[in-house]
Amino acid sequence: MKKYILGIESSCDDTSAAVLCNTEVLSNVIANQEVHEQYGGVVPELASRAHQQNIIPVVEAALRQANISKNQLDVIAYTRGPGLLGSLLVGSSFAKAFALASGIQLVEVDHMQAHILAHFITGGPDSITPRFPFLCLTVSGGHTQIVKVNDYFDMEIIGHTIDDAAGEAFDKAAKILGLPYPGGPLIDKYARNGNPLAFSFSEPRIPDLNYSFSGLKTSILYFIRDRLKENKGFIDEHLADICASVQHTIIRILLKKLVLASKQTGIKQIGIAGGVSANSGLRKALEETGQEYGWEVFLPKKGFTTDNAAMIAVTGYFKHLRNDAATQNLKPYTRQSGLNS
Known about the structure:
This protein has nine helices and ten strands. It is 42% helix and 18% strand. The strands form two sheets. Strands 3-2-1-4-5 form a five-stranded mixed beta sheet, with helices on both faces. It has a five-stranded mixed beta sheet with strand order 8-7-6-9-10, sandwiched between helices. The protein is globular, with a radius of gyration of 20 Å. It folds into two domains: 4-121 and 304-321, Nucleotidyltransferase, domain 5 (2-Layer Sandwich); 134-299, ATPase, nucleotide binding domain (Nucleotidyltransferase, domain 5, 2-Layer Sandwich). By secondary structure, it is an alpha/beta fold. The chain has helices at residues 44-66, 85-102, 111-117, 166-176, 184-191, 214-230, 234-265, 280-293, 309-321; strands at residues 4-9, 15-21, 24-31, 75-81, 105-110, 134-139, 144-151, 154-160, 269-273, 296-298.
């Protein structure tokens, strides 16, 4: 039976709305907020104001592109958290009002859970989705986790960062190099023409499956500081090699723990999710590591790696199947306490 789901994503600085028919995307509209570029990072107050301006046009565009009316919708799913409180309030308030006025089911979604379930967005008969259980490396600006996914809503975080996230390390390195915000994609761009072994940076020694990136950020900062004392043109002369070396180090840290997690669990179904999973170097390295260790690797389409409403909608679809409706009195949450719901 066909079910039409409207997804709303507003956890940070992108306002997004998507319409799915079951797990197939009919539209996925994202409004970016360029206002933050001049500040070198997201300003929460400006983000929430921009969401208020964008949310109605974005939803209208999503419905129009999907070629359906609001009366055909069966479910509205929204991001409840984690994220910026002001941004979450805009999306959740709109979703609650829309559901109440339309008389359709309201479903709340955890943002990080949705990143993982983006693997189950389908786009035709050739779509391949992971089988349970599988491991998912979830990497973004705010999170770095290894998750054991037993079912759609049975997930266990078996490794996580104890301080900074990998995406934050990318952005901090870009800022040190004088690259504009957001800097992570620019490091990926310049790294393609550089030597990943040109420079070395310290790697953390963290036990078990956990990560740490604060020391790496400091190592990059001191390295650039010292080289600039010797040569003021060092960054301009070696930008591609620096970016390639930084990216290589972050990817190596990520994959070492993922290999260990696969060995400990015996699971060889491996996926990746989150904004950093769009990084071309990481995707290539994961595929190469998968060939080495006999993994079956799953890479989400790049359009579903960064914050988007399609992943919210597909999660809402699976919640709808188990009749997991949200109430109007649920409040957004800014920090993640777990992945099971």
